[in-house]
Design brief:
Layout (H helix, E strand, L loop, with lengths): L1 H26 L4 H4 L1 H14 L4 H19 L3 H26 L1
Length: 103
């Protein structure tokens, strides 16, 4: 039953977000191509409603925020791409070690 409620909540939030983003793209200078990362943020946050410790929720929301910054502010990710993979690997390694240490 909890999975069904989670799916209903996530689906409802996605539909509401899509409607708002389409409305924003029709009535403002922001296009849907600029605001689509908000969907990722909503999906991540809806996952975190049920478990604040869910790494997948944090990951999806963080990716959404990164893409939103790239789209809205023209942040040039290519210049920093050589640093992104190593940082992600180090952070994942720290997470694995901390999770193992708690057990």
């Amino acid at each position: 039953m909890p999975n069904e409620k989670r799916n209903i909540l996530t689906g409802g939030l996605i539909l509401i977000t899509l409607g708002v983003l389409i409305f924003v793209s029709k009535t403002t200078a922001y296009s849907f191509g600029q605001t689509w990362p908000i969907l990722l943020i909503v999906i991540g946050i809806s996952t975190l409603f049920y478990s604040i410790r869910a790494i997948e929720g944090w990951f999806v929301a963080t990716v959404g925020v990164i893409f939103l910054i790239i789209e809205l502010y023209g942040f040039d990710l290519y210049k920093y791409s050589q640093y992104i993979l190593p940082v992600i690997l180090v952070l994942l390694g720290v997470f694995v070690l901390l999770k193992r240490r708690k057990r």
